[in-house]
Please model this.
Amino acid sequence: MTKVSMTINGKQVSGDVEGRTLLASFLREDQRLTGTHIGCDTSQCGACVVHVDGKAVKSCTMFAIEADGAQVATIEGQAAEDGTLNAIQAAFQEHHGLQCGFCTPGMVMSAAALLKENPKPSASEVREYLEGNICRCTGYHNIVKSIMAASGQDVSAIAAE
Amino acid sequence: MYAFDIERPATVAEAAAALGNEDAQALGGGQTLIPTLKQRLASPEKLVSLTGVAEMQGITSNGGTLTIGGAVTHADVAGDGSYKALSELASNIGDPAVRNRGTIGGSLANNDPSACYPAAALASGATIVTNTREIAADDYFVGLFETALDEGEIITAVKFPIPQKANYQKFLQPASRFALVGVFVAVTADGVRVAVTGASNEGVHRWTAAEDALSANFSADALDGLSVSADDLIADLHGSAEYRAHLVAVMTKRAVAAAS
Model:
C-alpha cells in the first residue's frame, strides 16, 4: 500500500492505496464520494469524469497514485456549501437535462470544463465536447440545451424534442 | 487488474533505471494501457509512470522543427498550432477527457494499427528520440503493435520537421473513435509523403504509388486510377478489406484537397 494525499473539492485528504487502485475507486470507496459514477469501466461512457488540476479526466482510467498531490474536483464540490446548485446544475434541473440521472455527474463535470475553455459554445461545439459522455437514456437534446442555458445563451428557440 | 506497484520517477534516468527490471512496464497517460490491464491482458509487476518526468514535457519550435516531449498530452498538441495538421489530428483523437491524459509517446510506443499519431510521424518523416538514440520514423514502425524500441527504452521526444503543406483525414470508427482509415499527406522539400493508418494488418505504412503521383502533380486528380490492393488489409465487423482499400484512396484525395 502507498500513502496518497490530494485536495478534493478544497479539502486535504489522504489514504492508503494499492498500485492498481483507480482514482474512481479511491473517490467512491475510500472517500465515500459516490457522486462520481462508474458506468462502463472501459473509458467509453464518461460518467466518472472529474477534474484533476483543472482538467476533465476519466477517473476510471487513471490511478489514484497518479493524482497524488493534485487538486481534484468532483460533482460533490459543484454546489455551494448550503446546497445551492451552481449554474450548470440549476440549468440541468430547469431544462430537464437528465432522465435517469446516472450519467449526470460526468455530464456536469464535462460541461464545467467546456465552459471554462469556451464560455459561449455553439450547440455543435457542446455536442462535440460531450463525445466521451454517453447518456443511455439518449437524452442528449436537453443536456445540450441545459449547457447552452448555463452559458447564458437564449435557449427559448431550441424546441423540446 | 492483477496487482502491481507504481513508481513515479522525476527524471528520464530514474525512469530508465526503474524500467531495467523486465517485469516493469512504462505507463504514459494510460488511456490504452489501463483498459488493457483491466482486461488482464497484461500483468506487469511494476508500472513506471512517465507523466511526472519534467524533461519529457513541453513543445518547442525551432528552425522549422517542432519538438514535442514524449509525455505531452494530445490536448497540449491540439492547443499548440505551430504544425496545424498535427494539432488538428491531435484535436480529434478520442474525446476531450482522453486527450487530457493520453500522450504522444504512449501512442507511438503502442503503435496501434488504427492510431492517428503513427500516420503523422511517418508522413512527416519525424524522428523518434529515446533515452538512448534517435530513430527515423521510416525505421521505427515495425508492424502490428511492434516498434523498433528495445525493452525499457523510453520515447523522450518526437521531432517533426514541419512540412510545406499537410493534412490528415480520418474516417472515424464512431464507437472506438480510432480511425477506420486515416491518411496523412505531407508535402516536404524531398517530395510528398503519404502514410496510411487503420488499413493494414501490418500497421501504419506509406503508400508509395500515391507519393510518386503526388510528387509529380500535387492534386487530387493525380490519384485518379490509382488503387490499393485489399490483400492483407484489416477486415472486421466495421469494414471489409475492400471497403478499407477504397477508403484509403478517398481519404488520400480528401487530404490532398484540404492540405495547407
